[in-house]
Amino acid sequence: MKLALRGDLLDFTAEPAWGDTESPAVRFRPGHWLLVDDGRIVAVQAEAPGPEWVRDDQAGRLILPGFIDTHVHSPQLDVIGSYGTELLDWLETYTFPAERRYADAGVAEQGAAVFLDALLARGTTAAVVFPTVHKVSADRLFAAAEQRGMRVIAGKVLMDRNAPDGLRDDVAGAERDCLDLIARWHGKARLAYAVTVRFAPTSTTAQLAMAGALCSADPTLYMQTHVAENRAEVQWVRELFPDARSYLDVYARAGLLHPRSVLAHGIWLDDEDRAALRDAGAQIAHSPSSNLFLGSGLFRWRDAEAGGAAVSLASDVGGGTDLSMLATLRDAYKIQALSGERLTAWKGLYAATRGGARALGLDAEIGSLEPGRLADVCVWDWASEPVAARRLAVARGLHEKLFAWATLADRSNLVSTRVAGVERYRRPPTGVP
Ligand code: GUN
Ligand code: ZN
Predict the structure, then answer these.
(1) Is there a domain that residue 100 lies in?
(2) Tag placement on the chain: N or C end, fewer CB within 10 Å?
(3) How far away, in angstroms, is 198 Cα from ligand 2 center?
(4) Across residues 213-218, what is the average pLDDT?
């Protein structure tokens, strides 16, 4: 099908520099047509297309590439907003009990559908996802993503110690489950498998070695985990792995750091760790709302980048408090403000689109409005209520407008989400429920 979508197109041609509000990396094409043929962007033009193109005219609205959430837990919709704990207590008190339910295929299937539809209803079209330790939870998540045509990277969670009954695997069984899931899903449709180590404390050295061997056997696999999120966690890892130089080094020794490694948080890393990330080509999935909510700490984004690590953006629900990448951006700005830095709208929106795509090695598929990319695109109202309308009306210049938009917009601004050109979310005429 030939689709022509008109609106104010915004994307990035390169990475914006810190503090640069007039960045040459920003590409803004107001009132342009995005031409999509068979799910792929084929052209962008100011002139109206010919009659063979089906028009979706969204003039006066903002069109962005779909957001990319590089770290989120599908079963943790059930624990968002749980009171009163830091990471390790939060896992024991709320999260592990909630994840146990995902042993059940029906719970896993229904949970995956609700989760992916919730992403689409917030403008997120691609995600790197933790389901649970249960094979069925990953299987149903992949199936639900395939049905929706989404780019999803996920894998069964590995945890063979320091977890309650019903949430532990063992090395041999886990390896078998991984291999089955890889054979079934890796490279199918828009799906990829990630070897998913929950975090160092819940895997034995033998399990970490197995995970590393899976990665070395197939360099097209991703790896996802958590690292250096919370000070008590870092101390625990020091006790569990006394021979490792650092928390990150536990993963490095197991062969888990490579260009497809996505490590959430990375708040408590040192310069040597940052250099190791750079040398491996691995990325940090910065999870600001989670870091604030669980009181984990203030991520030094600029230091991480100066050290050579790629940084992408993540909701980390349910430690994070909102699946929306706009809410994530707002919290990212506040964390940088507390650290004496300023995150421009450009830097934040880049990280949530093309930056995330690049870090995942998916720049040729998603993250921008370049011809050749799949048409994962969202249409947004500039303003959906009077306060935002008033604020945007007085904005001077494009950065001020986008920054105010990102600060004030929420899911009620989202009009339509397309995945490979197919509309997978449309705001109900009566507004969002
Ligand atoms: N570390 C290990 N597991 C988790 C989790 O589920 N959420 C967060 N934020 N950190 C973790
Ligand atoms: Zn997480």
Answers:
(1) yes
(2) C
(3) 8
(4) 98
Nearest 5 degrees, angle CA 425-CA 429-CA 433?
70
Residues 57, 121 within the same domain: no
| 336-365 residue pLDDT tens | 999 999 999 999 999 999 999 999 999 999
DSSP state of 161: S
Pocket test for ligand 1, best of 77, 91, 102 (most atoms within 8 A of CB): 91
Max distance between CA atoms of the chain, in angstroms, equals 68
Closest CA to 139 of 175, 97, 76, 186: 186
The verdict on 24 and 91 lying in the same domain is no
Kindly state the average pLDDT of the residues 20-48.
98
Q: Return the CATH number at 187.
A: 3.20.20.140
Domain identity same for 275 and 395? no
198 lines ligand 1 (CB under 6 A): yes
The verdict on 215 and 87 lying in the same domain is yes
In a shared domain, residues 372 and 416: yes
- Pick the ligand that lies closest to the CA of residue 291: 1
Query: 433 pLDDT exceeds 90?
Result: no
- Torsion over CA: 200, 204, 207, 209 (sign): positive
Span 385-393, average pLDDT:
98
Q: Is residue 353 in a domain?
A: no
Task: Indicate yes or no: pTM above 0.90.
Answer: yes
279 found inside a domain: yes
Residues 259 and 389 in one domain: no
Identify whether residues 133 and 170 lie together within a single domain: yes
In the chain, what are the helix, strand and coil shares in percent, each to the nearest 5? Answer: 40, 25, 35
Q: What is the DSSP string of 128-192?
A: EEE--SSHHHHHHHHHHHHHHT-EEEE-PEE--SSS-TTS---HHHHHHHHHHHHHHHTTSTTEE
Tokens of 51: 């009659």
**Is residue 395 domain-shared with residue 415, that is, in the same domain?**
yes
91 CA → ligand 2 middle, Å? 10
The residue to mutate among 76, 94, 96, 229, having the most atoms of ligand 1 within 8 angstroms of its beta carbon, is 229
Mean local confidence (pLDDT), 362-379 = 98
Q: Which domain holds residue 376?
A: 2-66+366-426
CA of 159 to the centre of ligand 1 (A): 12
